[in-house]
Amino acid sequence: GFTPQYEGLVWLNRCYERQGFTVIGVPTNDFGNQEPGDDAAIRFFCQSSYDVDFPIAAKT
Hints:
It is a single chain. The protein has one domain. The chain starts with a helix and ends in a 10-residue tail after the last helix. The protein contains 2 helices and no strands. 40% of the residues lie in helices and 0% in strands. By secondary structure, the protein is mainly alpha-helical.
């Protein structure tokens, strides 16, 4: 899948959040139906699988 990038995004967010930088996750279903879950399922997956602590927008 295309989810391993979350590890790097979590690292990036934690490294630079003190300087006011925030990663914002923007899930989309525009590329071959790769994000089939609803917003709650996406957030749960990101938080439980990758310890994502940055905001995740509604799926586009």
